[in-house]
Amino acid sequence: MKKFLMAGLLMALLALSGCASMAPDYQRPAAPVPGTWPTAAATDNATSAAELPWREFFTDAQLRQVIELALENNRDLRVAALNIERAQAQYQIREATLVPQVSATGAGSGQRTPADLSSSGSAIVSHRYSVGLGVSSYELDLFGRVRSLKDQALAQYLATEEARRSVQIGLVAETALGYLTLAADREHLAIARATLASRQSSFDLSERRYAAGAASALDLNQARSGVEAAQVEIARYEGQVAQDINALNLVVGSTLPDDLLAPDWATLRQSLHNLSPGLPSDVLLNRPDILQAEQLLQAANANIGAARAAFFPRITLTGSLGTASAELSGLFKGGSGTWSFAPQVSVPIFDAGTNKANLKVAETDREIALAQYEKAIQSAFSNVANALVNRDTIRRQLDAQMALTSTTAESYQLAQVRFDKGIDSYLVVLDSQRALYSARQNLVTTDYARVSNLTTLYRVLGGGWDETPE
């Protein structure tokens, strides 16, 4: 009967445990940014970035293979995944403290008492055997301290999940930008090589004309300088392409095969999906870095509850239920039952201000987390706004650069014709060649700025997450 009484008392105390929480009620803070973007953002036939998986945004097959390799091998993403496992284990540890930890015990001992210490005047050998179930130092969470710590661990665990999403989104964008950079620099190199071939042909013609007396030494030297300038450009872009490959291998986390290191710029520049930025309230509050900051804010909020509960008594229970006997064979005979129940109450009386200081620290941590959350929203808003402004500016630049390149190409053709007819010197042709070369290179640079901006816009709008592999 006593054992049932003790079990009933224990169950009643457990029912009371965890019924209260002293953490402040959490309310999501208002976003400290305007409700609209500072530039006209509407885009016809466009898709929201957060709703567009990266495999649909980047439609080039080779680029998708490179991104998949990065997601498999990148060490930063691997660390983020391991952080999730660690935080999950920490949460499980905290959650386990909400229920008593029951352990089974078994013990046996033997003791010999010498004759001169024995009350009977003879040596005595005694034995003791016991088995049972016990609860050791279980805290009754009457004021929510343990539950608040569990809520804090849960929020921190969820924050690491958002951190992994943020790392993946950044990795997808960084890999794509690295691949686009390689493609653009390879296009720069192709233009430089084509220019060298053209200038070499012009130099050969000038050399023949000089030998025939139809061209001056100045014309010949100017043609030679054009060839040498093109060779300098080729060497510069070859070095840049090699650096691009090294940077891309680092991001991917492994050496890319050769068949993935020859992207076609003409195809790649047209392979990105168009986007609509949506409203700030929809975009910003769903970005993983902002969700991570909010989870950390909730963790700090829960920690205040634990700090407040420290001002109140802490009740811990220790108990056991089992059997004991002097003979091993008598462990489970009638009358061998044993039990113990040892509740303990700890009431803070004087702690030299430790609890007050801990509460102040917890409240300050929450204010810090709040400021960091608001800063994350403001930074995200600024990133999106800047990307939108750049998108409109780059569009105008690209249109102007395309027109300039077309005009410069016509000027070069006219200069070449006039030189062939002897109307102008080779200096005019050389100037036209240089202008055309610069215009073509600037066209690639501006077009790269467009696709780079679109990739950046995709990232800052929260695009790039896809947890369902192909």
General description of the model:
The chain is an alpha+beta fold and 470 residues long. It has a single domain (33-96, 145-310, 356-460), classed as Outer membrane efflux proteins (OEP). It has helices at residues 2-16, 54-57, 61-73, 75-96, 145-211, 217-252, 265-268, 280-284, 288-309, 354-420, 426-460; strands spanning 47-48, 102-113, 124-140, 275-276, 314-325, 337-341, 344-346. Strands 2, 3, 5, 6 and 7 form a five-stranded antiparallel β-sheet that branches. The protein has a two-stranded parallel sheet with strand order 1-4.
In short:
By secondary structure, the protein is an alpha+beta fold. It has 11 helices and 7 strands.
Kindly list the characteristics that best describe this protein.
470 residues, alpha+beta, Outer membrane efflux proteins (OEP), five-stranded antiparallel beta sheet, 11 helices, disordered N terminus
